[in-house]
Specification:
The protein is of the alpha/beta class. The protein contains 14 helices and eleven strands. It has two domains: 250 residues, Type I PLP-dependent aspartate aminotransferase-like (Major domain) (Aspartate Aminotransferase, domain 2), CATH 3.40.640.10; 135 residues, Aspartate Aminotransferase, domain 1.
Amino acid sequence: MVKKFDTRLVQTGRAGTKAHGYVNPKLVRGSTVLYPDVATKLALGTRRLEQIELYGLYGTETHFALERAITEIEGGSHCQIVGSGLAACIMPLLAYLKAGEHLLVPDSVYGPTRTFCDTTLVRFGVTTTYYDPMANEAEITALLQPNSRVLFTESPGSHTFEVQDIPMLARVAHARGIKVFMDNTWGIYHFQPFAHGVDVSIQALTKYVGGHSDLIMGSVTVNSESDWAWLRKGMLELGQYASPDDCWLALRGLRTLGLRLRAQYAAGLEIANWLAARDEVARVLHPALPSCPGHEFFKRDFTGGGGLFGVVFQPQYSAAAVVAMIDALQLFGIGASWGGYESLVLPTGGTIARSAGTGVYEGEVARFHIGLEDVGDLIADIEQALAALRAG
């Protein structure tokens, strides 16, 4: 029986419907693992690439259940759970790159990932080139160097939602033996990374998988034994670990991921279209709308989306006016994360760090995350808050 995606979300990472026991996997906490004899310990100690309970740092039943689930969702072969979304972004870079090598990163990348490239990787002798996320094949090819080893992608881009041509980037990179990493957090349910040429898929499980704004966690998934070997060894050498309690919560959140994402995508798209028709708005940066850079790639490669998007206001409205509007909102929290059940908003114009000339818009920018509240209530809240924008 070929199971569809929603069925796999419910069924994967647990014993199954015919097993004796509780529906949810056990929560297993522990550091020390006991062995029946020395010979067993020595034999199992050589199998650190496998999901075997060897020592708490290497994973428990709870970790392995979540890793199996994320592997299936992303269509990969192996997954490593780590302590945060940022760790999922940077640890594969540390595991794979060495001094003297070169990395390409989109100008629209998550800010802390950029900071890591500009500080820690510089100290380690790795150089980074930031590229326009909408660069074409010739432009990307011109940026490659003989020592280029990784092409990092993030699609859609952080804050400004550029959708990248991942198959093209993968084709260019692979022709030169370069690995393709992708931060696929926004598209976890709607984009299959390995089917589009990605080698390493990164998730901030803090977001949609957790779904309730109460855990911090990341995952790194690969689709080959060779990639798994260097990733797993690198992660163990770096001491990466995630709390089994958070793994258990992530598994619980996973079961409703499909329902939540469909609801949030539909609500977000309705609100994005409503905002796009407002006189106060210059354009909406939602991948499903033609006004978003890379919309054509979204239509080609994604099966849907999430509830996170950006809004560019008309140039006559100042940053202070946008802040006044945000402060006037009653149903939207002001918070830096997203992916939970609650609606959020942030002014982002002053926080976008760019060096390749991208992310320049005609007016101030804000980021909206649409939760599970009633859509009519959210629209009414934004409408009343726009009065504060106009007054500013």
